Amino acid sequence: MMEAALTRTRLKLAVFFLVTFHLKTDLTEAMQVTSSGPQTIQKPQGENVPLGCTYTPGVQDVGELDIEWSNVSPDMTQKDRLLLTYTGGKIHNYDPSLSNRLRFIGDPKQGDASILLSNVRVSDTATYQCKVKKAPGVDMRKVTLVVMVPPSVPKCWVDGKEEKGSPVSLLCKSSQGSSPLTYTWTRESGGALPPVMAADTGELLIKNHSDSYAGSYVCEAKNPVGKAQCRYSLKAYNPTNKVGVIVGAVIGALLLLLLLLLLIWLLVCCCNKRRYEKEVANEIREDTHAPESQPSSRNSSYRSVLGYRTHQGVSYSSVGNRMPSINESNASHRSNSDKSSKPSAAVAVKPLPPLQYDHRYGYPV
Questions:
Q1: 189: exposed, middle or buried (C-beta count within 10 Å: 0-12, 13-18, 19+)?
Q2: Beta strands in 118-167 (DSSP E)
Q3: 62: three-class secondary structure by DSSP
Q4: Strands 90-93, 126-134: parallel, antiparallel or unpaired by DSSP?
Q5: 188 CB-near residues (< 8 Å, 6+ apart)
Q6: Number of CB atoms found within 10 A of residue 19's CB
Q7: Helix, strand, or coil (residue 302)
Q8: Structure confidence by residue, pLDDT tens digits, 299-309
Q9: Is residue 274 predicted with pLDDT exceeding 60?
Q10: How far apart are CA 285 and CA 304, in angstroms?
Q11: pTM of the model
Q12: Is 149 left (phi over 0), alpha (psi -120 to 50) or beta?
């Protein structure tokens, strides 16, 4: 019985070794796609990135070689986007936007299906698949490319007056850079760093500033594809006299108010003075009598009314002597004519002398 059991054990071991050897032979003879590169690649924009894909066909793989590179869609319900193929000994590019930046590195027939993507951009971030077919063998490999923007040179500044005893914050920020972006503060001179520091926002908080914290600080912005630095020299000033500042501000406000009131008072006094002078001038004009006109001026005025026209046989007198009106002159003329019509002694009429221009009056007299 022991011999029979030993025989059964030997048979089982023989069968196990035969099955294992057969499976190993099948695996070595099947198509295998390999690559020494990582499954996920992080690169800064602008670089040239190789995507490795090497293959080893099996003994039974005697069909035509077919290599496909495609962009795997993150949505499983959507089709993958075909980029580059090698079929029938010819290379075909299916993406015009990548035609000048995507190519095979070596000879695809010699077991190297790796490609090179030049001048990578953030939009090139995707999962790429290499698929090698040679009937009846087929195998594939996926590699994820993450294109990132390195951090720009950060800006360092301080939030606070750098006064002793007051809280002061050292801040650091890069305007460009892909996440995750972290900030680290170090101290070039002086003692240890303050205990409070936020790596995600780039803030270094000093709750109670003193001379011991004064010195040169360095901030480094970093992400997986790059890093950059900036420096800031922190000072420690004596605190200002706040009470004196407040008292000075109050005194200044009061002086300004007094000056404003003084200007208003001067303006009111000036207006009252002008009004008083105007009223006095009006009273003087009302109390003053008009000057008497000279006889010559009256004659001139009277003659100007007549239009500077003189008539022969009309005598002119001064304003003191009343001039007869036109009706009285006509009545006198009629009475004289009536008298002349009666039989009486003839009245001799003495002719008037001719008029002569007088430069003093400006008209004939």
A1: exposed
A2: 126-134, 137-148, 155-159
A3: coil
A4: unpaired
A5: 215, 216, 217, 218, 231
A6: 10
A7: helix
A8: 554 444 444 44
A9: yes
A10: 28
A11: 0.56
A12: beta
